[in-house]
């Protein structure tokens, strides 16, 4: 039987719905129509991710959203309200950006692979959220933009995730024009892995997730951590680091079991060690 829990801002409002089944934890942004990344939404999502780190039942995380908008980014009404503060909102803006940066890094540094399932519009920090995930599957009706430049607010923090996922000129095109791109353009840019019909999105994402969940959890953790670490290094340093990781990985019981199973032509029995 599937287990269901929820992150709530108050008893009356569920912001992030959580559903665990077959090793796949689905986290759903549940504050349509905008699914804005307010302080409360970001805290709820980060809390769910943090708990998943300690839950050995979780092999893969899927991040989705309710409604027609995946996420419109930061809650501009919430931020604007703080312009009435004595410091014109500076402290609140700093808190918002620090929490957002912490949330995005929590996804990248999470020991479980995170897959974005995008069936709507993802703009600004919402686009950043998609770019921060390890994989992304979009429906044909998904659209993406970093439109801050249109309102005098360059998408500087979304730029960090975007520029690490797409070619430099594609990133600059999105950041400088603020124009919306469709799902197939996002695929050609490298922002998403696959584009499917809306009715096939859930099935495609679950197939993806279950394929990954069938692998050794230890190997996935080692590999994800190493991928992002080496990407920040020079070539020689990256090879030295990756070689050390390979040696340590070879010493793991799961590697011994996996290689043995391959040689013996049988299914491996993962122990996560």
Automatic annotation (TrEMBL):
Pfam family name, one: ECH_1
Q: Which residues form a coiled coil?
A: none
As one GO molecular function, the record gives:
enoyl-CoA hydratase activity
Give the UniProt keywords, A-Z: Fatty acid metabolism, Lipid metabolism, Lyase, Transit peptide
- Superkingdom of the source? Bacteria
Keyword Transit peptide in record = yes
Q: Would the keyword Lipid metabolism turn up in this protein's UniProt record?
A: yes
According to its UniProt record, which protein family does this protein belong to? Belongs to the enoyl-CoA hydratase/isomerase family.
Job of this protein = May play a role in fatty acid biosynthesis and insulin sensitivity.
Matching entries from PANTHER family are given as: ENOYL-COA HYDRATASE DOMAIN-CONTAINING PROTEIN 3, MITOCHONDRIAL, PTHR43602
This protein is called what? Enoyl-CoA hydratase domain-containing protein 3, mitochondrial
Which organism is this entry from? Chelativorans intermedius
Taxonomically, what lineage is the organism? Answer: Bacteria, Pseudomonadati, Pseudomonadota, Alphaproteobacteria, Hyphomicrobiales
